[in-house]
């Protein structure tokens, strides 16, 4: 999926051709690691954490936008940062992720004004960004252009290591990897400028 969503955007004229150069930057280290891992498989008879998703991440990618760790988290709690695969909890968001659009997860604390975030997401080509607002302490108010969910059990907040007291924006790419972990519209615009080009 890594190359397919990028090719589609470039082919449709919605992203600059330089987006395609990120394919090799992201995939070569993953393939190298996967080959090294599978070469040593005979030594291990069980699936361990090193083989989970084959350690795939894109932390070196020029597409990744990570605003830094959430405050108060330990090193062990930073595993689901931008560049890692999405977490899959008891109640998963997996069904909302599709290979033809980015999914913007807006973790909204009670009383947060998310209208500006939704409006910013609507400036990108139609159908290429789906916005989901996730509230931890009740169902967030409806905002035109976004789907609203109550993360009643906190699975999404825990999975993405979001404390719930600060607005957090997580962008899940069409290939299912987190490409952006930011705190404001400016960070969101920085991420999408790397995908769609500067406006």
Short description:
This protein is α/β, with parallel strands linked by helices and 199 residues long. Helices cover 27% and strands 15% of the residues.
Task: Write a structural description.
With 199 residues, the protein is an alpha/beta fold. The protein has one domain: 3-Layer(aba) Sandwich (Glutaredoxin). Helix content is 27%, strand content 15%. It contains 5 helices and 6 strands, in the order ααββαββαββα. The chain has a 6-stranded mixed sheet, covered by helices on one side. Strand 5 and strand 6 form a beta hairpin. About 16% of the residues have low confidence. This is MRP-like transporter.
Oligomer: single chain
Helix fraction, binned, reads: 25-40%
N-C termini distance: 26 Å
H/E element string? Answer: HHEEHEEHEEH
CATH class wording? Alpha Beta
Keywords: FAD, Flavoprotein, Oxidoreductase
Protein name: MRP-like transporter
Domain Phenol hydroxylase-like C-terminal dimerisation: 146-196
GO molecular function: FAD binding; oxidoreductase activity, acting on paired donors, with incorporation or reduction of molecular oxygen, NAD(P)H as one donor, and incorporation of one atom of oxygen
Topology:
Blueprint: H1 2-11, H2 21-39, E1 65-66, E2 102-108, H3 115-121, E3 129-135, E4 147-150, H4 155-159, E5 168-172, E6 178-182, H5 185-196
Parallel strand pairs: 1-6, 2-3, 3-4
Antiparallel strand pairs: 2-5, 5-6
Please name the defining characteristics of this protein.
alpha/beta; Glutaredoxin; six-stranded mixed sheet; 27% helix; FAD/NAD-bd_sf; Phe_hydrox_C_dim_dom
